[in-house]
Structure formats: C-alpha cells, structure tokens
Amino acid sequence: TIFDLQGMRQGRLRLAAVTTTKYFLPKLLKPFCQLYPGVKLSLEFTNHEALLARMHENLDDLYIMSCPPNREDIEVRPFLANPLVAIAPASHRFAHQRDLSLKAFAEEPLIMREEGSGTRKVVEQFFKQHEIDLQINIELGSNEAIQQAVIDGLGVSIISMHTLNCAEVRNQLAILDIDHFPIHRQWQIIFPKKKQLPITASTFLEYLLKESQRFSANKENPMQVVEALWI
Ligand code: PGA
Fold it and tell me: How far is the C-alpha of 84 from the C-alpha of 103, rounded, in Å?
C-alpha cells in the first residue's frame, strides 16, 4: 500500500545485537541501505544481558542473540550458526595436537568474557554439563581484547568463531582440536510477540532470513558457514 511504501521511504529501523555479530552484520546492511536509502537505521552492539534489558525497555525493533530466553511472549527466528571455538597462541604446545581432552584444556589459564556475556554463559553451562571445574583467570569485556591477550600468551580462551574474521589475528592464533568442540550455537532474531513490527523491521527481518539461507546453503557444517563469511 501507499502507506507501506511511505514507511520504507522515511521510516526508522532500530536494531540491537550481541557483540559476536558485529564482525559480519554491518556487511549485510549495505544492500539493504542501498535499496531503502530513506530508512534511518541504528544498530547497537552489546552483550546478552544488556540486550535483554533493552528488550525489556522496548528500545529496539529487532534483537539478535544466541540463547534467547525461554519465554512464550517472544518470537524467535533462527538466523545463522555461531560456533564457539577454543583458541591458543599459534606457538602453544596444544596448537598441533589432535583430540585434546577437555580436562587438559581446562588446566590452562583461561581468559573469558565478562559476566552477562552470552558466550560466557554457554561456556560455563558446557563445562558444567561435562562435569569439569572451570577456573577463569582473566575476565575481559571485549572479544578483541581476548584475542590480543591470547596472542600475548596470557592464556587460552573460548570465543565465537565469527570474531576471528581478521586474517592477521588468525595467523597468530590456533583453533584447538578439542573433544566436543566447537560448541554449537545459533544466532536468533527475536522480538516481542505483542509488538506490531514497523514495516521497516518486518522488511529487514525477511531480508535477514533470506540472506541466512543463502549463506548456509551448500555448507556441510557451521564452521564452513563462518569461514565463508570471513571472505
Ligand atoms: P555475547 O554474545 O557474548 O556478546 O553476550 C553472545 C551471543 O552470541 O548471544
């Protein structure tokens, strides 16, 4: 309708997403913005807990995170794979080992994201599930800071594979071959059911879902999906 077209010509689109999406999501904005140059777009990146708080305050139209709360009142649409990988410096003795045990990994000094991070929550649940005690030696509130600390030899870590999109960083790190790894997660697009999505948001949602199918097609596993997005 004319009303809808009007919305796409001059509407607003407010998005909020977890930090692990920032290596790739901005790339997806370009075609959308070219198609709808009148749409004023904002995209906030924050951790899992802060995202839930934003949703509680109804600050944004769509939210993207890995582990949405198990609630009846939100719509959840699967988006893309978000595998979590274990990393060490490229020169670490674990770098070329195969089938390393979780227990051996857990004995290394561990660098982890802050409380409130979804990545951290998943890692803690994972180790609990495997009945291995997890000691966090250093807590850092940024994926890039973690990569740098691992490169500098402060310890090992577990982070989203998406954060390794820079070849220069990857060259200084090793993705470890550990039992039960990677930890398989998936980003989800969520929004409150009771909310009437503006036309900008429903159009963007459809666009994201279509793109996610395109990116995941013909890939054998989630790590391949991520590798294809690095390029
Ligand atoms: P976060 O992201 O660690 O930045 O909170 C987790 C997620 O992918 O949901």
Answer: 17
